[in-house]
Specification:
The protein has 21 helices and 27 strands. It is α/β, with parallel strands linked by helices and 646 residues long. The strands form 6 sheets. A 7-stranded mixed β-barrel has the order 21-22-23-24-27-26-25. β22, α16 and β23 form a beta-alpha-beta unit. α6 packs parallel to α7 and α9 runs parallel beside α12. The structure holds alpha-methylisocitric acid (MIC) and iron/sulfur cluster (SF4). Iron/sulfur cluster (SF4) binds next to loops.
Length: 646
């Protein structure tokens, strides 16, 4: 039987298990990437493993999230990351060089390779034909040490693209259509594979916009075949040598198939406060806009920003609009500058922002109270922009540019005075790798610099015989990692777990850290109760690490998203699932809960555990959907302890 692209790459990298959907497999990881906000913890954990050098083909450490440098913390982190990279054989991308996913696509991505990154948008690499997966920092640390990455063998969903995009309709609208079809829930354990005659019209940066935002559907990753379009991109980046053809066999099979006719698509937007809240731009026409932010790893390529510059040429941002443009990389910025587009953007009243995540992670450019903000990034969770009352709409770069000029949302299909500028991908990109630093050839001479912001990665204790605790928090559906462990202004504490822990669940309940810590200090444990899609969004392992620090021993939810569930296991927190919606109702915040004999039951492979709600006098059955390996990690109190014991 023929193989699809996912199966081809996975079988070339398979170390353990069988490629049967739903089974646990382990694969070899060729390339790794980290970014600064998750990277410090990843490298501290790598150091704790005691290896003297990374062992995978290529490891790159990017600095793109925390580049604000208010106070000493970010700069401390950067110096630590630079020195640790130099010592252990990691390429270091200096702050200002650009956003990890855009840079990795430009300079390192290669078809057929596996990439593991400590950022949920690592699947951007699928645009170039890689199996690129987001994971917690400790999983990336293990991969850097040459260890396997464990995942569920995926169900592969084929998305056939036919037809050709009309003027003003872009790759962003394709992925918003996909989000409308698949939503942000229920896709755990799947991978999307794109195919069809429409592919030949989509350049690699456009494909990368699509795979980038596949993360919002909760799939493990998304992948495009590697074809002549891929070759053209790699050649334009001076890297034609790494190209290889990678297409599905004609008789390849899939778990599910859908077709999207590109010719029929229209401009779309994600309305507040979820990426799958997809509406047509036409339905928003006339909505007054206060802020327009263009950039992020979804839409900051040269073609994206050149298109914006051409639309803005000879025009200015409306007086009521604050317009910001953040190029995805130094390469993009240089090419815009050399072609005169930076001047165009400045004349249009755009604020040229640093080549970094910036506004997307909410650490700058927070909009005014109650603002309508149009953004080209991938997440519009409530409060992520830094302003809780703001309404963030996710749109394509041309839709953003038109709104900036007119001060309101404009349906591009009704525009008559501006011709849609179809910008072609350049035949040759400007290459300058000066902002990448190669590791030292004399590692022994390098001293790793640890400023006062660099702490030790805390470890959990082994799972006790019984969990005796309290439901310290009960939350509803779609609790994102931005709810659990807010980023934005709090990002600078990423390397300091005791300080960062003071903000756990800040957007939901500011009293949580004190409550949990008091319970912990009294020798009891916390259990958090949640609804569906708990832990959606980021790969930040702090959303497990900091609750662990506060004494959380179990999460009981209706469903838990993939990366977060893996992070919970890695830090020794037991992820449990309700069997019915009614069971969720059987626990209230503050109830006393007991899991008697939990250690023995896990050891024995029990798939069903009982939570005794002492306050209500009822027993609640819950599922422990865990592999043998995951059980062993939880029993040991997390992956670091587990690895040490092995
Ligand atoms: C995000 O987009 O939410 C982030 C910030 O890039 C995160 C990583 C982090 O929290 O550091 C992600 O997507 O994994
Ligand atoms: Fe950075 Fe935003 Fe992309 Fe996350 S989604 S990597 S914060 S640009």
């Amino acid at each position: 039987m023929g193989l699809n692209v996912v199966q081809k790459i996975l079988s070339e990298h398979l170390i353990g298990g069988e490629l049967v959907p739903g089974r646990e497999i382990s694969i070899r990881i060729d390339q790794t990437l980290t970014q600064d906000a998750t990277g410090t913890m990843a490298y501290l954990q790598f150091e704790a493993m005691g290896l003297d050098r990374v062992r995978n083909e290529l490891a790159v450490s990017y600095v793109d999230h925390n580049t604000i440098q208010v106070g000493y913390e970010n700069a401390d982190d950067h110096r630590y990351l630079q020195t640790v990279a130099s010592k252990y054989g990691i390429v270091y991308s200096r702050p200002g060089n650009g956003i990890c996913h855009q840079l990795h696509l430009e300079r390192f991505g290669a078809p057929g390779k596996t990439l593991l990154g400590s950022d949920s948008h690592t699947p951007t690499g699928g645009g170039i034909g890689m199996i690129a997966i987001g994971a917690g920092g400790i999983d990336v640390a293990v991969a850097m040490g040459g260890g396997p990455f464990y995942l569920t063998a995926p169900k592969v969903v084929k998305i056939t693209l036919k037809g050709k995009l009309r003027a003003w309709v872009t790759a962003k609208d394709i992925i918003l259509k996909v989000l409308q079809e698949f939503t942000t829930r229920g896709n755990v354990g799947c991978m999307f594979e794109y195919a069809g005659p429409g592919l030949k019209h989509l350049s690699v940066p456009e494909r990368a916009t699509i795979t980038n935002m596949g993360a919002e559907c909760g799939v493990t990753t998304s992948v495009f075949p590697s074809d002549d379009v891929t070759r053209a991109f790699l050649e334009a980046q001076g890297r034609g040598g790494v190209w290889r053809e990678l297409v599905a066999d004609p008789d390849a099979t899939y778990e599910k198939e859908i077709t999207i006719n590109l010719s029929k698509l229209e401009p779309l937007a994600s309305a507040p406060h979820s990426p799958d809240n997809v509406v047509t731009v036409a339905s928003l026409a006339g909505l007054k806009v206060d802020q327009v932010m263009i950039g992020s790893c979804t839409n900051s390529s040269y073609t994206d920003l050149k298109t914006v510059a051409k639309i803005l040429e000879g025009r200015t941002a409306a007086p009521g609009v604050s317009l910001g443009v953040a190029p995805g990389s130094n390469q993009v910025l240089k090419m815009l500058a050399d072609g005169g587009s930076v001047g165009t953007l400045l004349s249009a009243g755009a604020r040229l922002l640093e080549n970094a995540c910036g506004f997307c992670i909410g650490n700058s450019q927070s909009p005014q109270t109650d603002a309508v903000s149009l953004r080209t990034n991938n997440r519009n969770f409530e409060g992520r922009s830094g302003t809780k009352s703001a309404k963030v709409y996710l749109v394509s770069p041309p839709v953003a540019a038109l709104a900036a000029i007119s001060g309101q949302v404009v349906d591009p299909l009704t525009v008559t005075d501006i011709k849609y500028p179809r910008v072609k991908m350049p035949k040759a990109f400007t290459i300058d790798d000066a902002m990448f630093l190669a590791p030292s050839v004399d590692p022994a001479s390098v001293t790793v610099v640890r400023g006062p912001n660099i702490g030790e990665p805390p470890r959990n204790t082994p799972l006790p015989e019984a969990i005796r605790g309290v439901a310290t928090l009960k939350v509803g559906d779609k609790i994102t990692t931005d709810h659990i462990m807010p980023a934005g202004a709090r990002l600078k504490y990423r390397s300091n777990v005791p300080a960062y822990s003071q903000y756990v669940f800040e957007p939901c309940d500011t009293g949580f850290p004190k409550r949990a810590a008091e319970l912990r200090d009294a020798g009891k444990q916390s259990i958090v109760v949640a609804g569906e899609s708990y832990g959606q969004g980021s790969s930040r392992e702090h959303a497990a690490l900091c609750p662990m620090f506060l004494g959380v021993k179990a999460i009981v939810a209706k469903s838990i998203e993939r990366i977060h569930a893996a992070n919970l296991v890695n830090f020794g927190i037991l992820p449990l699932l309700f069997e019915t919606a009614a069971d969720y109702e059987a626990i209230s915040q503050g109830d006393e809960l007991v899991l008697e004999g939990v250690r023995e039951a896990l050891k024995a492979g029990a798939e069903r555990l009982i939570i005794r709600n002492v306050t209500r006098g009822v027993d609640i059955p819950v599922k422990a959907d865990l592999s043998q390996r995951q059980r062993a990690i939880i029993l040991a109190g997390g992956l670091l302890n587990f690895t040490k014991n092995c």
